[in-house]
Amino acid sequence: MGVTLHYKLGQKKQEVKKTLDRAQYLAEIYKAQGEKIAVLVEIRRLSDYRLYIDIGNCETLAFDFKSVAEIMEAGSKDWDYMHAVLTDDGKKKLDEGYEITKYPQNEKYYSAECCKTQFSHSLAEHRFVAEIVRSVASYCIAAEVSDEGDYYYSGEINDAKEAIQENGALITSIAGQLKQAGWDN
Q: Fewer Cβ close by (within 10 Å): the C or N end of the chain?
């Protein structure tokens, strides 16, 4: 529960590194801006296909691009978030690209994640997350993004502010009801 950005992204294998390089560059800019407004930004580039960014009090913003084979294998072993989201719990197939045997560079890699911003201490944190997601999505050949704070679509930070406040009030109300019902903490 709480304001969250959800994203499903598809990119040609050969373009993933450049796509994440751009996002990392933007994150470096936000890191410098964050230092001026007390928003800590930490960047971890684990490979050409994996970029993790911690922004303030938000959940980790993760871009972990994987091949169709990797996603299907993970889904066959146990429940896997990326597999579940991208295949609708195994009901849909993932497109591997156009004639990948002839043109392996056309193989598609996918990433599906979410990043909760509900507990951010600054609206800049939500904006940083949304803009980095927008940067990656804008270079992908397939992208689906939803922002429960609506900033991603409107560009109006007050939309995120209202959503975060409304969710906060709802969480507080539910917590109060649970406490009245005898639940501690």
A: C
Domain extents in the chain: 4-180
What mean pLDDT comes out for the span 44-66? Answer: 97
- Convert the pLDDT of each residue in 129-156 to its tens digit: 999 999 999 999 999 999 888 778 877 7
> For the chain, what's the residue count?
185
- The model's pTM is 0.84
The dihedral through the CA atoms of 70, 76, 79, 81 has a sign that is positive
Can you say how many angstroms the Cα of residue 27 is from the centroid of all Cα atoms in its chain? 14
Instruction: Note the pLDDT tens digit of each residue in 166-175.
Output: 555 445 555 5
Count Cβ atoms within 10 A of the Cβ of residue 169 and give its class: 0-12 exposed, 13-18 middle, 19 or more buried: exposed
